[in-house]
Amino acid sequence: MQFILENEGVIRLSVFAGVFCLMAVLETVRPRRKRSFARQKRWFSNFANLAIGAVCARLILPWVPVSVAFYAQQNPVLFEPVLPVVVGILLLDFCIYLQHVAMHKIPVLWRLHRLHHADLDYDVTTGIRFHPIEIILSLLFKMAIILIFAIDPLSVILFEVILNAMAMFNHANFKLPLKLDAVLRLFIVTPDFHRVHHSSIQAETNSNYGFNISLWDRLCRTYTAQPQDGHETMQIGLEYFRDPAQLRLGKMIIQPFCKKEP
Fold first, then answer.
1. pLDDT tens for residues 110-144?
2. Which UniProt keywords apply (predicted)?
3. Chain centroid to CA 151
4. Which residues contact 257 (CB under 8 A, 6 or more apart)?
5. What number of H helices and E strands is found in the chain?
6. In the structure, what pLDDT confidence band is assigned to residue 77 with cuts at 50, 70 and 90?
7. How far is CA 207 from its chain centroid?
8. CB of 61 closer than 8 Å to CB of 140
9. How many angstroms separate the CA atoms of 157 and 39, rounded?
10. Cβ 4 vs Cβ 157: under 8 Å
């Protein structure tokens, strides 16, 4: 535990790099779908957007979630710091599920979140494609949950590592054996499970909100088993953002301020 607490940054960066490289290789050797665009056309913009979001978050927010967790242990707001690690992780996961639903249901939040859905391909970099403002709002929401429930630092670090790894895993364009997918999706969000959420069909977009475990979608009745057009032929993205120019970094940054709507 002490090692994890003392080496949070190194652990998170190492897991991110390792999972990203593994997913990139799997996408190459066992792709689920044919690419619509060359990798370099999208990857530069998606990574640059992530870098801008990370820098903005660091400049604007004086804290990070784990520092809030340390503070909450000494200065509980509503609840005493008694949650077991597993419970803390599950609580954070459910709250992130609820946040994701809110990003779809509240118009002003959807204008930010739709950047994630406007990607015209679906691969590991889609999992890091979030508008900088959404990144900051997500951090604020997460820190509020940590503060209110006094979630301990170890739970926070483990959750952040799992969330980052799973975001890349379930956005990756690689094919799991169908029987394995059927078993895994009983517990976690697989690429086929989450790809439905990136369908251009609105009813499918508004389903399968989970990032880590699949339980929340089943309990809250937001689960769609398969896309109606099939994984290989379904249209990824949004009907009203089909111009490839929208894949450029500048277009991505200003997209929430555009008036284009369904």
1. 999 999 999 999 999 999 999 999 999 999 999 99
2. Membrane, Transmembrane, Transmembrane helix
3. 21
4. 111
5. 13, 0
6. confident
7. 14
8. yes
9. 31
10. yes
* pLDDT, tens digit, 9 for 90 and up, residues 163-218: 999 999 999 999 999 999 999 999 999 999 999 999 999 999 999 999 999 999 99
The pLDDT, as a whole number, for residue 261 is 62
Q: HEC string of 189-250?
A: CCHHHHHHHHECCHHHHCCCCCCCECHHHHHCCCCCCCCCCCCCCCCECCCCCCCHHHHCHH
Give the residue extent of every domain in the chain.
Answer: 2-31+49-257
Nearest to 125 by CA among 243, 224, 250, 252: 252
Q: Which residues contact 59 (CB under 8 A, 6 or more apart)?
A: none
Q: Is the dihedral of CA 138, 141, 147, 151 positive or negative?
A: negative
Q: How far apart are CA 225 and CA 218, in angstroms?
A: 10
pTM of the model: 0.93
The residues that bridge with 236 in the sheet, in sequence order, are 199
* Cα gap 44→141, rounded to integer Å: 28
Confidence of residue 101 (pLDDT cuts 50, 70, 90): very high
Amino acid residing at 62: P
246: nearest Cα among 112, 118, 114, 117:
118
Cβ atoms of 72 and 146 closer than 8 Å? yes
**How far are the Cα atoms of 186, 196, 208 from residue 98, in angstroms, in the given order?**
20, 18, 12
Query: Does the pLDDT at position 47 exceed 60?
Result: yes
